[in-house]
Amino acid sequence: MLSREVAKRVFAREFGESDMAFKEQDDQYAPQYLLTPTGAKCNRIFFVGTLIEKGDIGNDVEYWRARVVDPTGSFMIYAGQYQPEAAQALSGIEPPQFVAVIGKPNTYEMSGETLTSVRPERIHIVDADTYDLWILETARQTLQRLKQLNEGSEDATKAKEHYSTNIEHYKEMVLEALKTISKSGEKVSFIDLSDI
Amino acid sequence: MVRDIAEQLKARFSEMDVEVPLEDIEKKLDELINKFRVPVEEAKRSVVSQYSKDRKSADLLKVKDIQSDGQWISLKTKVVQLWPSESESIAQSGLIGDETGTIRFVSWVKSDLPPVEEGKCYMLKNVVTDEWQGRYNVKLTRSTEIVPIEDDIEVSSVVEEFLGAIVDIQSGSGLIKRCEFCKRALAKGSCGEHGKVEGMYDLRIKGVIDDGKMVQDILLNREIVESLIGITLDEAKKMAAEALDQSLVLDAFRERLIGRYFSIKGPRVGRYILVEDVKSSPKISDQDVTELIKEAEAL
Predict the structure, then answer these.
(1) Are A178 and B288 inside 8 Å of each other by CB?
(2) Number of domains into which chain A is organized
(3) What's the pLDDT tens digit per position in B42-69?
(4) Which region holds residue A73: left if phi is over 0, alpha if psi is between -120 and 50, else beta?
(5) pLDDT tens digit string along B179-219?
């Protein structure tokens, strides 16, 4: 029996900066993976964020597009007739709203650039505490991957080779995310417009 | 030809610790095959089942002492749980246990044995051990004898914990119907064993919890579901009746649980953890955040 794939935790910015999609077997039904710059090999991801916009972009049948933001960027999600439960859920959620999404990474090429999106299996409304928990968990797991980037695991080696991963860049991303849930010390930094 | 088959069977009997003279086997086979024109496979089966019944009783073991496969043993156990059948050739499968642990069991349709009941204790004579994916299980076969016993056995099991987000609740969850005779979940109003039955309502959740590193299948029974969701079986029945739709209950469960963090605890049963205790994950603590910030800055 095929065991279920783990839902990886990645921030939106890292997900958006990923473009290495591959299969491990040359079979139509073999699982598809997206390897991210810190070496998360994702066949499925789980994220929580704020659904800020959605729209039905289908012609004859419903085809929902939505944007979910986390502290580092945004995830685009697309749900149509092959994701009936997620599409139905999306049609009923009015933004803005905290949502949890479980889904499959998807990549497509547009004018030479690889764009990532998510085909959701499930979308559900959650609360702010769940969002905090997800940020903390995702920060912890991203940090762990960054630490293990030089330890020579297969995924880490492939990621480093493909992306020449800039550790500093993702460390900053993790810190930005953590500061949005930190009650003490440094708050989220706002740009002072008078400086521009 | 008969001689060859007889030798094969004798070797098989020896493995089961049954010594039968070769001549006896040969004579029986010869009679069946040559005189009564019984097909070879049928003749073999008949001889095997005849001698299997004669064999001396297998050693009575405790569950924790099961350390090899292909061993014929007897167990004094309690049926902890019966699982929905995964295949047409399986009559019953589930978990049995004693004071020393639990083990999975399978009983095949072709073995034609009386069904066991959840929560009851039995002496299982002549079961054979087997290994699958690094775990032992026992198979009840044609030669197995199931003897109900009166005394209650205290089953011990290892409790596991898992902290993660619930990422799926599978169909077959929510408000379901079980067979009133064997407690199996009905599929389209029909029981695999007893056919069309009236059935009785129950609540359960078959779900998946995931911590980003591992996935774990979980089972929540009615008691746990009622306390976790705050909907009783009667209320669930009312909900379904008013909406004329049983799946409404499943939808409600999914909405309440998927995407949220829980810590669960319970014994492992095959691929499942049978959840006996479930709590919403506590909110993040500022200390955790501060520590992680320090850890990130040190990178």
Answers:
(1) no
(2) 1
(3) 888 888 877 766 555 678 899 888 888 8
(4) left
(5) 988 888 898 889 888 889 999 999 999 999 999 999 999 99
Range of the domain at A77: 7-180
Name A86's Cβ contacts closer than 8 Å, sequence gap at least 6.
Answer: A64, A77, A79, A101, A103, A120, A121, A122, A123
CA of B165 to nearest chain A CA: how many angstroms apart? 9
Q: Which helix (H) or strand (E) holds A172?
A: helix A167-179
Average pLDDT over residues A154-177: 96
| Whole-angstrom distance, CA of residue B225 vs CA of residue B135 | 29
For residue A110, the cross-strand partners are A113
Residue A168 or A153, more confident: A168
Chain A residues whose CB is inside 8 A of the B258 CB are 100, 102, 122, 124
Question: What is the pLDDT confidence band of residue A1, given thresholds at 50, 70 and 90?
Answer: very low
pTM as predicted: 0.70
- The stretch A173-188 carries a mean pLDDT of 82
Q: Is residue A189 part of a domain?
A: no
- Which tops the pLDDT comparison, A162 or B87? A162
Of A177, A74, A186, A90, the C-alpha closest to A134 is: A177
What does DSSP say about strands B272-274 and B215-220: parallel, antiparallel, or unpaired?
A: parallel
* DSSP 3-state of B41: helix
Q: Which fold has domain B159-280?
A: OB fold (Dihydrolipoamide Acetyltransferase, E2P) (2.40.50)
Phi/psi for A126 (5° steps) reads -130, -175
A43 belongs to a structural domain: yes
Q: Sort residue A76 into left (φ over 0), alpha (ψ -120 to 50) or beta.
A: beta
Do B159-280 and B59-149 fall under one CATH topology? Answer: yes
**Interfacial residues of B (vs A; Cβ cutoff 8 Å):** 165, 167-168, 208, 210-215, 254-255, 258-261, 281, 283-284, 286, 288-290, 292-293, 295-297, 299
Residue extents of the structural domains in chain B = 2-54, 59-149, 159-280
Q: Which of A36, A142, A182, A187 is the best substitution to test chain B (most B C-beta atoms within 10 A)?
A: A182
- Which residue is listed with tokens 């009559």? B91
| Mean pLDDT, rounded, for B25-37 | 89
B59-149 maps to which CATH number?
2.40.50.140
Residues of A in contact with B211 (CB under 8 A): 137
In tens, the pLDDT along A10-41 reads: 999 999 999 999 998 888 888 999 999 999 99
